[in-house]
Amino acid sequence: MKTTKREIIMKGFSPMALLGVSDENLKILRSHFNANITARGERLIIEGPFEVVEQIQHILNELIHLIPRRKQLDPTDVRTMINMEGDHQEKIYSGPGDSIILFTHKGIIKPRTPGQDAYYQASVNNDITFVTGPAGTGKTYQAVAVAVAALKNHEVSRIILTRPAVEAGERLGFLPGDMIEKVDPYLAPLYDAMRSMLAPEKFKAYLEQRVVEIAPLAYMRGRTLDNAYLILDEAQNTSELQMKMFLTRIGINSKAIITGDVTQIDLPGNQHSGLCTAIDILRGIEGIAICELNTVDVVRHPLVKEIIEAYKKKDSGGE
Questions:
Q1: How many domains does the chain have?
Q2: Which domain CATH number covers 36?
Q3: Is the C or the N end of the chain the one with fewer CB within 10 Å?
Q4: pTM exceeds 0.85 for this model
């Protein structure tokens, strides 16, 4: 079988940060792929079958991206990356920026489609990002990942996660139980996303210390939120007044992501969606980004995309 030879130059960091103590990370790669990987000063030489060399090079490039955040990579990082590379069902999009949003105890979080990558870049380069799209496009999950990354990088000191509790008419005082029991059913997607990115004890500590605050939109009224990352989820179900109220809560050194699906508006009567109105009147303002995801960006079960397309066809009058 014809072999391929590739070379990676290790510049801007200590080779040991990538290779590990006594080259332990390199040994894991050699053992897993049964390939010849040699370190010579700042040069890393890979030799083997074309597909194997391609995989190893991709894994090493991903690991190099992690070094500024992790400083020193360990065998767990390498094994996680190998598992992700080998999972073809979860093949991750690698665009021009090859962005990594967050490294968690469960692995790397990064955009999986060009649309998600554009959404990520917009959230990095703007203080307010609106993102719309159907179910399954990663709107909420990616927003939480961006906020957690900002918290870990000390860019903000807290995260505020909120959504309108339309199903309860936001009259939470009439529901049984304490505050957590009242809001859990409406904020579960935000809890789920956060739990998947933080170790249980860390998440619990953040909640207790109010580093992470998860609350219905009604509880945001009258506050000014400085040095925070704000996420407003299910924003299609905000009224125009609620949306204005939320946007004017944003304080000094704060950023916000507003997510929603404009095809699933549950507002009572003939109320206009605050999300739709905000996008219309704020489009073009510097520092505010508008992102629109579609079925191409769906990353759930493949049938989700088919279901969305079928309903879209029905709503448009198709047969």
A1: 2
A2: 3.30.1370.10
A3: C
A4: no
